[in-house]
Design brief:
Layout lengths: L1 H30 L6 H36 L8 H36 L5 H26 L10
């Protein structure tokens, strides 16, 4: 019973520890450039708090995607072998990197449409933005679906 409680507590605190470590590094690097202005220090503290929340959410999302992917492989985190766990982490990292890259590309594409076509009638930049959004969604969804269909080579099912 105590083993289950310990495993649950350790699993749920890993994202907090990782987010705390990243936030501490963010704060330490930012404090080096502040020349003892109280306003800047307070603002940097607020930004560090926002950074902590974003990192905590990102770590929780990544941990839940790993659990979901391990369930797709038919194993749980405790019983998964090192190779299967590494395979799952690799696939999820690919999906997250592609997702972040295409999200940034989507934002840049929409901003370009509004900047380049903003002087025209409203429907032209809106339509171009919708086209960019659709292409980014389809490519990201396609890559994510492809990666979700990759599985660890195990025993053949009859």
């Amino acid at each position: 019973m105590f083993q289950k409680i310990r495993v649950t507590v350790v699993k749920n605190t890993r994202p907090v520890y990782l987010a705390g470590l990243m936030s501490s590094l963010f704060f330490a690097v930012g404090v080096q450039k502040i020349d003892a202005h109280v306003g800047l220090l307070a603002r940097h503290g607020v930004y560090t708090g926002i950074f902590f929340l974003c990192m905590w959410i990102a770590c929780r999302l990544f941990a839940s995607s790993l659990s979901r992917r391990l369930a797709l492989e038919g194993v749980c985190a405790e019983s998964a072998g090192d190779m299967v766990y590494t395979f799952v982490i690799y696939l999820e990292l690919i999906k997250h990197v592609v997702g972040v890259s295409f999200t940034l590309g989507w934002i840049a594409g929409v901003m370009f449409c509004w900047d380049y076509l903003g002087h025209k009638m409203f429907l032209i930049p809106a339509g171009a933005s919708l086209a960019v959004s659709l292409v980014a969604f389809l490519v990201t969804f396609g890559i994510s679906s492809f990666v979700d269909n990759l599985h660890w080579p195990g025993q053949e099912e009859d």
